[in-house]
Write the structure tokens for this entry.
Amino acid sequence: MRNRSPLAAAVGDLSEGLRLSPVWWRLGLEQTYRRYQRTLLGPFWIAGAMLTTGLSLSFVFGSLLGGSWRESMPHILGGVLCWSLVSGIVAEGANTYMGAAGMMQVQRLPLSFYSLLSANRILINFLHQIVAFWAVMALFKLLTVPHWTLVLAIPLVALTGFFLSIPVAMISTRYRDIGFMIGLFFGALFLLTPVFWSRAQLQPDKRWIADYNPFSHLLEIIRQPFLGQAAPLLNWYASFATLGVGVVLAVTCLALFRKRVIFWL
Amino acid sequence: MVSTSLELFGVTLDYPVYSVRAKSLRSSVMNLAVGGRLMKDQSDTAVVRALSNIAFKIEEGDRLAIIGHNGAGKTTLLKVIAGIFEPTEGVVDVKGRLTSMIAVGLGMDPEASGIQNIYNMALMRLVRKSVIKERIPSIVEFAELGAFINLPVRTYSAGMVARLNFGVATELDADILVLDEWMGAGDAAFHDKAAKRMERFVASAKMIVVGTHDLGLVRHVCNKVCVLDGGRMSYFGPVEEYFERLEAA
């Protein structure tokens, strides 16, 4: 028997992680469930943050930026909803391996498994929030039938987040400062991405901030279907490109550092 | 059918130890800024050669004891065998399903009940759900947890956690069982029960690798011994020969 090449081992790690899907799916559900064990309103608290942020922002910015509230509210609430998936998986990556340190010390599982597990938790939270989003939209009689591209967009965004979360998780485990930095970075990115504003509202010479931000494209491909329309093709191209970058980064980092992560804990 | 075996070829493991300072970005950036050498001497990253050129082969029915002083590399070797650490050099060739019980309780979720933890541990060992359901009664019975099985694991005593862990590890169709210092927790009755369980486990042509200080256990349960000394293997062979040498010395 011979050692596998680092590249083959990296791809092997990813495919092994995917084969474990029943395990991380079940564990993710259970960990989510346990978070609201002994609470009265349970799942509501998971959606609550999205609703309070989304509705507060739409109240203030909806009027600040002009236009009718009935137009801006779905855009802003949908933006906050979709942002939780777009940024959540990558940002959560900062805690993935440190959070799983116990499991990693006793059990041989591929590194991608832990990343899939934490991506799955974010996805489950997101599914909670969709229900809350539709409930609020129905309450204001703004409910629209989602565009079918949603079924492609959600997996694409989740997968992109998963691949990007691997290098983030590795570097945050090795350098503990990075974990904090990631938090600040996504805090800033929330403001710099058209979540509660739109690209058209920017002065033309500042629009690059939305154009060159991969997260704004990922955001649009899921937000637009929620509002009943397909996202422009450009957003799709940019999102696929981001996925490609994510895959390359994840495979490279796995090939280079996969063996060492356990010693960084 | 492929027979169960475990073979190590020239396994060496270098273990980087990062201090608090080495984990911070500032010291790494400083390393670059100062041009490396000066700061690197103080960078607090030590590399420990935990295992050096370990090679042996064990087969079906073997019960291997890994013994050595504290810090000799027992747990590290068990972790390499279990696949938790990948060797820096060399290859670990495992044929068969391996299950490990290295740090008792570490893989458990203290907030979840015993039953949920059985499910989780079994799922992580890739056991199918139907099989788990079937085995739960005998795991619970072995662990003697009774009604405690439905309470969160944080309410368990150390011995209860060890019993649950041992029950799961031995009940789930593994071919190779890797144990570390499992005698640490649990009372005398549990030790007898566990020893019986291990005998039964081995009787069905399976393998055990156990790291221990307990020479009584080595004499009664094991048939081969691997002695580690500062990360090197100073003896590997049958138990009888080991004890003969020990008496001769």
The longest helix of chain A spans residues 69-99.
